[in-house]
Amino acid sequence: MTLDLSSDQLLSTTRAVRHRLDLTRPVPRRLLEECVDLAVQAPSGRNRQRWHFVIVTDPARRAALADVWRAGVAAPGASEPLPPRDVRRASVARMDRVYSGTAHLYEHLHEVPALVVPCVEGRTDRAPVLRQAGTWGSILPAVWSFMLAARARGLGTCWTTGNLVDERESARVLGIPYDEVMQAALIPVAYTLGTGFRPAPRIPRDRVLHWDRF
């Protein structure tokens, strides 16, 4: 079953869900496969379709992957720096919610019914920006399509990257050939506790939109 959402509603209410993930309700494999089917309709560089989606539902492997993620989140320097002083006050409440959500995931990640690790063939370690852009541009649109498809089916997702702090260990746990395939994220997927989500506060358009020059 899909939610009755317009395209604008879908795009404006697909939130990073942490506290409202239903940890008790299994996600049918069929729904996850439908989300991947839609994800791979996304564009990719030169239409090479180098994407892969590793979906982890086995409890023992979920627990092992969650341990790698937790170690990454707790590693020194893993957190993003504080925002500039002039925007810090406006973002404090929002970041408090983010940190609270991260703490919740830290405690419960292994309980999330499905953990999705999107990957792309080819590594960008020390690569020039042009190559990096082509590689990331060949996986990120597909992942966002996956997240939108999940939202339309009443599923919540959240983009996280703790597994990338020790990507080699994450690759070992999942059997990913590290030298050939790069992980992009770790996305928890679960039904949500309620489906009503609203557009989030965002920086005003006139601060991000530029006409003809920056």
From TrEMBL:
Record-annotated Nitroreductase domain positions: 15-189
Pfam families listed in its UniProt record: Nitroreductase
Oxidoreductase recorded as keyword: yes
Domain of life: Bacteria
Keywords tagged on the record: Oxidoreductase
The keyword Oxidoreductase is assigned to this record: yes
Family that this chain belongs to: Belongs to the nitroreductase family.
Name of the protein in question: Nitroreductase family protein
